Amino acid sequence: MGQGVRRARKHYNNLLLLIEVDWMLTLSKYSVGVGDRFAHQAKAQLRACMLAADAGVDVIPVWNKSNREHTIIGSEPGSVRAAADAAVKELSWKKPYHVDADHIRLETVDRFLPACDFYTIDVADSIGHPATGDAVTAFANRHPKLTGTLTIPGVSAPFTTTRADVERIAAKYLKAVQDAGAIYRKIATAKGAENFITEVSMDETDAPQTPSELLLILVALADEKIPLQTIAPKFTGRFNKGVDYVGDLKQFEKEFRDDLAVIAFAVKQYGLPATLKLSVHSGSDKFSLYPIMRRAIRDAGAGLHLKTAGTTWLEELIGLAESGADSFGLSVAKEIYAKALTKKDELCAPYATVIDIDPNKLPSAESVNAWTKEQFVSALRHDPETPAFNPSFRQLLHVGFKIAAQMGDRYLNMLRACESAVSRNVTTNLYDRHLKPLFVG
Ligand SMILES: [Zn+2]
User: Rounded mean pLDDT of 348-353?
Assistant: First the structure.
């Protein structure tokens, strides 16, 4: 064998090695989580991404459904995959798409393994629990650079962190990171490390994470060798389900921009994947934040994942109501509200940290029963300019999908009967009110 051949073969082997080590399923720069509770709107949702593509912006759909939603509805992750695959095939979508096992933990991940290529590892419950052994001291020793004054390009002010701060933050989050590692390794063993996208979520907790806490969390996740592509922190202010942001917009903007800078820094300094980006949970309907987030991601050249779910189910209800009395869609929508009202506490309990319903603002079942379709739609549709819009009514219906699930085929048949109104509302809501202000134009 000549030297040239040997050299060529060595080069070829190195190339193979490089491909093997470097290939990983990656998430595109802009992506949208499209939850679809009853697995009937995948096409209508995909059409919103097609409208964005027509406008020149790729926003990749990720069909997410949490373990909590599956449990409440009584569905299996395979149904999400089937609906996504069918929509993609029918509409000839040629770009990537994913199926997200949303908010899973070690004990709930198993049934998601065959269907999903995106895993949102939820470690919110582990925050504040003590890490094992001397992990905190070891972490602080391993990262002396985190102590002192740290100037990160793009952050509003340098972080000044003492050794005691590092240990305090590590004590709060290391257990959560260790748990994330255990869940990640379980998925990697089952699926192969390169075949899925990993997100870590900490949003469903009481206190927001500051940008300096986020940095430490990212460093710890890098230590844990988790190839993190999205992270969902809890931001400052209220991210209630299905309604606009409640909080200080200036403060949000500052923290959001700092978070973007921290992520870019952590990618560079700690070897996290270059595709790492923020994931905004309960991300639907945050109309006052989209211009802020849009400017910030453009300025930073950053990507973003916006996760939505219940906003699509609410458009189903709007579509039913719009179809009016003749089709009985309106009466089904009213029936769901009346039942949700009687089961309010039970329905709200799993969502306690992400809803704010004023019981005094909830109309009685009798008065809603007397409403026209216009009245029902204007109370429910998220149009903050409309005086009749009722955020408490909307939030109760947001968590009221269990009622529709209990109706079984009666609800699903009604969805099919009112399909044109439902799908028009689903697409318009997702594109006009979400993708367009956030990503397009
Ligand atoms: Zn979440």
Answer: 88
